[in-house]
Amino acid sequence: MIAFVIRRLLQSLIVMLTVGFVAFSMFNFLGDPINNMVGQDATEAEREHLRHVLGLDQPFYIQFLVYLGNALQGQFGMSYRLGMPVVRALAERLPATLELVFCAAGLALLVGVPLGVYTGLHRDRWLSKVFLTLSLIGISLPTFLIGILLILVFAVYLGWLPSFGRGDVVDLGWWTTGFLTVSGIKALILPAITLALFQLTLVMRLVRAEMMEVLRTDYIKFARARGLTNRAVHFGHALRNTLVPVITITGLQIGSLIAFAIVTETVFQWPGMGLLFLQAVQFVDVPVMSSYLVLIAFFFVAINLVVDLLYYFVDPRLRADRAVASGHG
Amino acid sequence: MAVASVPGAVRRFVDSDVFYSFRRSKVTMAAAAVTFVIVICSVLAPWIVPHNTYDVRSLNLLDAFTPPVWIEGGKPQYLLGTDDQGRDVFSTIMLGARVSLLVGFCATLFAMTIGVFLGLVSGYIGGTTDAVIMRVADVKLSFPAILIALLIDGVARGIIPRDMHDDLALYVVIFSIGISNWVAYARTVRGSTLVEKNKEYVQAARIIGLHPLTIMIRHVLPNVMGPVLVIGTLGLAGAILAEATLSFLGVGVPGTQPSLGTLIRVGNNFLFSGEWWMTIFPGVMLVILVLAVNLLGDWLRDALNPKLR
């Protein structure tokens, strides 16, 4: 068990180092940072001085180590465009993105799992076919188009919900939340649905496939032979065994939700990290771009790690296999 | 001799299982017909569009914001209405679909080439080469394609001088979408190559002293292409969507040659003033195109799957 954890931690570390290296190289690729800082009429001596003060005359690997050291202390430099530390800019936007992402993930699970169970159990009913057709269309609809359609219907024609921004937020000191005001919740509805829809179809198709697979197994036949009610068989035995992969996939998808939030945030002008990143791409604001990359990578690695460890605890077979293997070895 | 064998090839195709399963599925035939019509229209678009919207001189600003024909105020020469500069929406959609298809097709071909080559090398040579390629693929796979495409676009913006950016933007988009999608091909091809390389024909080729590269391309490649075609078709739908998303975000193809995504982004600015047709019609076109290609991909997957025959 400990060996497993250590190996996974090492793998995560290597991935983070790789991403850190890519983020660091972006500075070197994208022009001379000195040129971005000094004016046109700076003398060569002044440039050299600044280069020395900033440590840019050091060898490449030393610079990389310094970068890593700063990153560990949470220093990612100043944004060219905003003129404030990147960490502060990201921290200001983080709550908006995370609230959106978790609402979307919750929505995808709450709607996707029941739909998947229904279509898996009643494959031939017309309602199942309707859901499946809708899910195919859902996969073919790009996220931004869903957002635009929702805005057109609910904001422009019906005027029920706001089409942009976050509404009124409550500042809790280290976190700003939109959950505590009516306008904040109303502003959250459309973006959350937009972001959730693709994941929802994914969860639904996954649950459906897993249910159909599980229902064919011997232990389900045996459960039926014992005379258990349909309800007990479907929910007590079948659904329970489909949930492990569903939890895994959902966990892993949270990372891509954060990335896809870029599109949703653009459509709804949601003041989150994705919008910040997109503006950084358009203005070639390298510190913001590279820090966002590192942050997303960190989320991905952390989520992967947690899911792997959870898997280990949730699925007893994994533990048994390893116990047997280590017993022989 | 090549000429004489063509009818034979056609008959073989008509008699094949794949064509049989194609004829049995009405949805697939409809999807194929739709895709065919869109592709033909896109290829011929510059010659058959009612109005050449790239030509600024032909635009009439007085015709701006004309609604579609069936709505009051519509004009018969503008079937689906006009945009903010008086461009015919129907024509911009046809020309836009052309750009979208071109980018999607080139990006898919690019991803396929890299992926298939790396997969072949990885599976055939094995060892450290295999380990390195597959670890890179793992790391790449843990990031969403759209994020990688955006980053590459951002880096390209920094490297390429501003005045050249519009000319090169199309290639940057193709490159960034292609590079963010090669992993699926590489993994599949690697898996099939591992199976194929132990078969007798490969051993025979090795014994007569053929170069490994020749064996990979001439002998292994044709036997691992089936799944690649399936991934490629579904990948085309994905690439068209990716291009539309990038263009919608304003970092895709330049505004001088608008794709469907660009049209949607521009139209989106006028959504609140009620000019919905500038957004909705390109959007519908995009969805129809992607849906049709997706359906074709689904069918191809089932048709080439020996388990389902």
Q: How is this structure best described in words?
A:
- The complex is a heterodimer of chains A (329) and B (309).
- Chain A has helices at 2-29, 33-37, 44-53, 60-72, 86-121, 126-140, 143-157, 182-215, 218-225, 230-268, 273-283, 286-314, 316-328, and strands at residues 170-171, 176-177.
- Chain A has 329 residues and is mostly helical.
- Chain A has a two-stranded antiparallel sheet with strand order 1-2.
- In chain A, a hairpin with a 4-residue loop joins strand 1 and strand 2 (176-177).
- In chain A, helix 8 crosses helix 10 (230-268) and helix 11 packs antiparallel against helix 12 (286-314).
- Chain A starts with a helix and ends with a helix.
- Mean pLDDT of chain A is 78; it is low at 325-329.
- Chain B contains twelve helices and no strands.
What are the defining features of this structure?
heterodimer, A: 329 residues, mainly alpha, MetI-like fold, 2 domains, two-stranded antiparallel ribbon, 1% strand, globular, disordered C terminus, B: 309 residues, 0% strand
| Count of distinct strands of chain B | 0
Count of all domains of chain B: 1
CATH architecture of the largest domain in chain A: Orthogonal Bundle
**Main sheet overview of chain A:** 2 strands, antiparallel
DSSP helix count of chain B? 12
Mean pLDDT of chain B: 81
Q: What ranges of chain A have pLDDT less than 50 throughout 5 or more consecutive residues? A: 325-329
The top-level CATH class of chain B is Mainly Alpha
- Give the N-to-C terminal Cα separation of chain B: 34 Å
What's the CATH superfamily of chain B, by name?
Answer: MetI-like
Quaternary structure of the protein = heterodimer
Written as H for each helix and E for each strand, in order along the chain, the element string of chain B is: HHHHHHHHHHHH
The CATH class of the largest domain in chain A turns out to be Mainly Alpha
Distance between the termini of chain A: 14 Å
Gross CATH architecture of chain B = Orthogonal Bundle
Rg of chain B (C-alpha, Å): 23 Å
Please provide the count of β strands of chain A.
2
Instruction: Give the helix level of chain A as a range of percent.
Output: over 70%
Shape category of chain B:
globular
